[in-house]
Amino acid sequence: MSHDSASNKEEHITEHIDDYAGHDHITIHPNAWSKYRLMMREYVAEFLGVCILIIFGTGVDCQVVLSSVTGVASSQKGSYLSINIGWAVGTAMGVWVSGGISGGHINPAVTIALATYRGFPWKKVPGYIAAQVLGGLVGAALVYANYYHAISIFEGGDDVRTLATAGLFSTYALDYMTAVSAFFSEFLATAVLVVVVLAIGDRKNCPPPAGLAPLVLFVLILGIGACLGMETGYAINPARDLGPRILTAMVGYGSQVFTFRKSLTPHRLWCPVISPILGAQAGAIFYDAFIYLGDESPFNKPCVSSFCSLI
Amino acid sequence: MSHDSASNKEEHITEHIDDYAGHDHITIHPNAWSKYRLMMREYVAEFLGVCILIIFGTGVDCQVVLSSVTGVASSQKGSYLSINIGWAVGTAMGVWVSGGISGGHINPAVTIALATYRGFPWKKVPGYIAAQVLGGLVGAALVYANYYHAISIFEGGDDVRTLATAGLFSTYALDYMTAVSAFFSEFLATAVLVVVVLAIGDRKNCPPPAGLAPLVLFVLILGIGACLGMETGYAINPARDLGPRILTAMVGYGSQVFTFRKSLTPHRLWCPVISPILGAQAGAIFYDAFIYLGDESPFNKPCVSSFCSLI
Amino acid sequence: MSHDSASNKEEHITEHIDDYAGHDHITIHPNAWSKYRLMMREYVAEFLGVCILIIFGTGVDCQVVLSSVTGVASSQKGSYLSINIGWAVGTAMGVWVSGGISGGHINPAVTIALATYRGFPWKKVPGYIAAQVLGGLVGAALVYANYYHAISIFEGGDDVRTLATAGLFSTYALDYMTAVSAFFSEFLATAVLVVVVLAIGDRKNCPPPAGLAPLVLFVLILGIGACLGMETGYAINPARDLGPRILTAMVGYGSQVFTFRKSLTPHRLWCPVISPILGAQAGAIFYDAFIYLGDESPFNKPCVSSFCSLI
Amino acid sequence: MSHDSASNKEEHITEHIDDYAGHDHITIHPNAWSKYRLMMREYVAEFLGVCILIIFGTGVDCQVVLSSVTGVASSQKGSYLSINIGWAVGTAMGVWVSGGISGGHINPAVTIALATYRGFPWKKVPGYIAAQVLGGLVGAALVYANYYHAISIFEGGDDVRTLATAGLFSTYALDYMTAVSAFFSEFLATAVLVVVVLAIGDRKNCPPPAGLAPLVLFVLILGIGACLGMETGYAINPARDLGPRILTAMVGYGSQVFTFRKSLTPHRLWCPVISPILGAQAGAIFYDAFIYLGDESPFNKPCVSSFCSLI
């Protein structure tokens, strides 16, 4: 989740060309395909990053929960801690495969926060988010295919699909959580996530060595799941929730995955989508207001700007 | 928990100015707010570090213990190992967000030890400690709000608050622990903590690469919790205990959080507050007496000083 | 699993000689043995890497499963998570002992993928694979010897050897898995494995610092086992499965380890051998088609080649 | 466990002086004490390293096992995996506090192997081993004091001390293990340990960055405990076993800690003391014979030496 990705495509290509010049093992556009790849590359990286995140994350949900039924496995294959570890591994691997290409956001809430506070170009934001959600959908499809037989045994038939296993793919808050509580839980966890993401990307703070940010994220997501995860399932990432949720709607769970808790209509959007986006903003505002010195942040613009004149 | 932070504010600002000069992306005081931020920055970092430590730490306490009741969750969401991991993550993240700003002490016992043996300026000590305790209080408040409904289910009502859940926020020694045993347990664990903190900050020893000290602390706190944690709840940090304890007193637990084990009056202060401070001193004295070569340590002052003349 | 190993033996030796020249502590061929060692060195490293992988991996299988019987141990010594950790440690240690010598493939599927897409010399491939399978066989033999008495207690006698303990050494898919499902599960997991391996070896992406790739692999294999492991036992490595399977056939389990699920004849080869090889190819194709810029990849050959003319 | 420590004391001091010259914060012998410290420093570091290893290791043994009794704690505070983690943390922390001073051997088997194959000066070996055993004894004493009340509750009285709790401090093989099996188990685990230690200290292989060797050892010891630990308690370190064993004899367990399994008299020495030493030799011989190129190894001496003439 570094935020050093090129601020516009032209610069980006130029940078690559410079790199090429300095290293004789890489040539520019060696063939017709290369041009298309260069255009898609950042978006494919975000797609791939979320896809891998979801393969690990929904994979561990399936393995641990489904194996609690003896027809699926002779003994349970993991515990709640395994689930926390699985999502942490997914996050780390998602960023390791995409970090150097797209910045490794793999989370729309992070992408929007970086656009707002770190100069990530807004024109790339829609493409990033679309790629992220699509990655979540495809990752969930691969895991659904992988655990198809086990899901059917758990549900009691190939044509039985209930929220009991829909919950393996997208998040559903505990029954007693009010809309406000669910919102707060996701808001708090995402704010913590973004404060850490900004801190480890701030070279005036205490950043890990190049290439090890994903290790920090492993530890971070392990902790968020273990410490703040049970109430809402720690979406903290709209793509992590929406992509798999759309997949479940497509493969037979139907509209129930969207009408869950209809009496709390806005819940589904507020809890796993709006709340992480706002929580990310809150985390970034706190970090920039009190800690950050870099001039990409609106908090560090000269006072001639309208923003600063408010202070 | 590096101890390379500037030894006085004037130097600190100068250093920043030098940095600014060498890097055209940062300007000094771009707006009115910047000046205030620079004054508060180190203290806010300590506040933020402890706040994040406590969000993870008391968060995992709440999640694991509260979910053992079926009204809260269908199955327990974690184990004692999860609790050890949660506190370890909190420590690592607390230092990752503050390490480059304030040195990442996030522990009054460490701050006092660094002031005594590593030249950390004493005039900053009161501000650091106040920020640390306040961070603990605010972190606990956020977690209390987050788990409010679950706590009420666990306790049996919104207006029932007993030591059963107060213990999720601050530490209470096991019943059979005497005052001496409780003191010794915290003393030993904090001495080990400080020996490791000083070793990984000693460039003549075997320090991890820049930016990875928090990873070492993750492993360290994981171990302290797993190995030395059960008797007193491993406060090993006065701010970690006092901040959340004050919060519990404020939100409805009342004075019982301070009068616990009244017959052992000094226990509350000795076990989670005085003992870590003295244990940190003991660890630092051992390390400096036998290992450390740097001249900030009183053990390495020339013999003209009164301290050395004792030897 | 770096893929920077020398592309042919002559270059390799020259490189060593250059190194020797620059460092006076090493001399070329100081004695008669040195020449033989230099010829065998890469192959021995692969042998050693897989041997260590299998010592940890089948070791943890034995310890956790055998200790579930009270005659073996008073309480179970580990859990399914321990098994995931054991295989992860084995992978990391296998690469740490071989990475700088042979590239640390320790997996025929990886070796073949690197030969296809990263210019690893094909003439070394048979030797690498033979060394890897032999390493698996020897590692399993050491673990079999180590747990001999416990296996006998578990089975009920020194001369009783059934699939119940053969499954501690090589992988057997769950009963309800069809051949297609088992193939898909191994295919998916190996594709993810290879995408990550290529990403952390791609210096245009987000590689970890030199010497820490095994740490990434530790996290990766921990996740693959926790998230995608239960259905087929996550071979994802033909040598990991074949070596120990041959050993079990040799030490008394007989031909049943090969005739398992005879009605699904091709299963044994498809699931733990062919599927990982093809999954590795799929992962490499995806990564190279969409992300990789280095010119060793067939995707980056100039268009004069027949391959590119297809695009 | 780096093996770059100075090969004799004179060189060592000279190196320090050079360092001092280049860094104006450190002065040589600023006071009377400094001279004594310099003489003791390496030995104290080994003492401290083993002491910290044993504080964590026997600490986690005590916490997990004692808390299984409800009089000690309301629920068990950890699992077998916690025990594996505790010993892994202890090893990592023991090396982090001593690595830059003494090389961080913290294991007589490693010290002897480095003396044999890496030129570690034999004249330091007795002092290192004495310091290591003493560190084990003192660490065990601190943990015994820490868990004194819990041990008494577990045993049923302050004056009851049986092998049930002696086993928390030193290792006792499972009942059905023969002397040969126990020997083999420790031999195998220590050989693996030393192969990894030599590999990560071999700059021609795949060493981790400076200061991260202890992290590798954390992963390694976690794996050895999880995969090869249950049969003999994975001493793999004579000081780890002998120091705490002597302590238990001293504090009231009496001679039973030495006469355990008297019918297998040599067991106690062979299993946790001789076997690790020989296993370390075997690991080093394998690594040097097939992988290592550095000229400190006897395998790389010129053929004029009598050793090489055997080949």
TrEMBL record, chains A, B, C, D:
State the protein's name. Answer: Aquaporin 4
Q: Which is a Gene Ontology cellular component entry for this protein?
A: plasma membrane
Q: In which domain of life is the source organism classified?
A: Eukaryota
> Pfam families from the entry?
MIP
Q: Which reaction does it catalyse?
A: H2O(in) = H2O(out)
> According to its UniProt record, where is this protein mainly located?
membrane
List the keywords (alphabetical). Membrane, Repeat, Transmembrane, Transmembrane helix, Transport
Has the keyword Signal been applied to this entry? no
Q: Which InterPro entries match?
A: Aquaporin-like (IPR023271), MIP (IPR000425), MIP/Aquaporin (IPR050363), MIP_CS (IPR022357)
Stated membrane topology is: Multi-pass membrane protein
Q: Give GO terms: molecular function aspect only.
A: glycerol channel activity; water channel activity
The family line of this record is: Belongs to the MIP/aquaporin (TC 1.A.8) family.
| NCBIfam families (UniProt xref) | MIP
Protein's cellular compartments:
Membrane
UniProt cross-references to SUPFAM superfamilies, sorted A to Z:
Aquaporin-like (SSF81338)
- Record carries keyword Transmembrane helix: yes
Q: Where are the transmembrane segments?
A: 43-66, 86-115, 127-147, 176-200, 212-236
